[in-house]
Amino acid sequence: MINLSVQVGGLRLKNPVMPASGTFAEELAHLLDFNQLGALVTKTITTEKRSGNPMPRVCELNDGMMNAIGIPSKGAQLFIDKVVPFYRDYDAPLIVSISAPTAQGFADLAARLSDVPGVAGIEANISCPNLEAHGQSFGMQAESTRDVVELMRQVTSLPLWVKLTPNAGEVVPVALAAQEAGADAVVVGNTLLGLSVDIERGRARLGNFMGGISGAAIRPLMVRLTYQCAQALEIPVIGCGGIATADDALEFIYAGASAVQVGTATFLHPKTMNTMVSELEAYCRRKGVASISTLIGALDDLPAEPFGALP
Ligand SMILES: Cc1cc2nc3c(=O)[nH]c(=O)nc-3n(C[C@H](O)[C@H](O)[C@H](O)COP(=O)(O)O)c2cc1C
After folding, report:
1. pLDDT tens-digit profile of 116-146?
2. Any catalytic annotation for residue 240?
3. How many angstroms does the Cα of residue 287 sit away from the middle of ligand 1?
4. What pLDDT was estimated at residue 303?
5. Is pLDDT at 217 greater than 50 in this prediction?
6. Could you check whether the bond before residue 75 is cis, i.e. omega within 30 degrees of 0?
7. Does 308 map to a domain?
8. Is residue 302 part of a domain?
9. What is the CATH classification number for the domain harbouring 181?
10. Does the annotation place 208 within a ligand binding site?
11. Can you give the residue range of the structural domain that contains 101?
């Protein structure tokens, strides 16, 4: 019997596979088995209702996609009344992704969710590049990350995961700030800001002009950031970005991820995460690995310098 369980930021998960925020919702319940997942992560919610960005909000790329959805939200109250009860039927812990325009707004929402039965943890989306001009967000700087995480930490004892952005050129100092401010885990990470041009019309392909790149195109970047964060941090790192198969997930795990999130791949094949869990088990069996947690950070041939030589 292979042990796929992992310890992630205050929670014991039965396996390391969970959805990435914004790519998973109640409607998928008839397409994949939620009970086979390590955790369930909701779309980012905000306190107030938000309408989101102008259309088109997504476009395809050769090796992934771009989105500028803009966090449309029906507001926290409707979420608490209608969505949280739906998830109480499932075993996997429910992680609620939150966002707010101010640090105090993040804290208020975290505090409010902490009293809701069925909410097992909070993922702070301090990284969404579409909320503010030019991709600026709390997660771009260590200081603003520290401020917002500290405020949330003061008001919630729930496991607090902080989702980082690869758009911060130096992600490790931001991750360290999140850890010092009391985060229980970091997610590495959100989409990478891009611009795709429709050359027939001479216009940006997204209504919001710029958007976040996701899918296979960003995977090596996210594996590298996962590795660097895992080297620097004591808290667990959750890897995310272009994961579509167990092999992809294992790259992140070897690089130091304690768990992984799957986003874009679910749009192509809704059962991707279920298949991944079986394939992770098969990999462990083939390799004689009794517990997948022994593979976390097991990457061999570490560079002499912690960040490696420049290419
Ligand atoms: C359509 C779409 C919507 C997303 N919405 C959110 C969101 O609400 N909150 C968030 O933190 N990340 C959001 N993301 C980012 C994903 O959670 C994930 O970090 C990113 O897509 C990289 O993973 P992937 O390559 O597996 O998709 C969204 C991504 C996509 C493609």
Report:
1. 999 999 999 998 544 544 546 899 999 999 9
2. no
3. 32
4. 67
5. yes
6. no
7. no
8. no
9. 3.20.20.70
10. no
11. 6-51+70-195+215-295
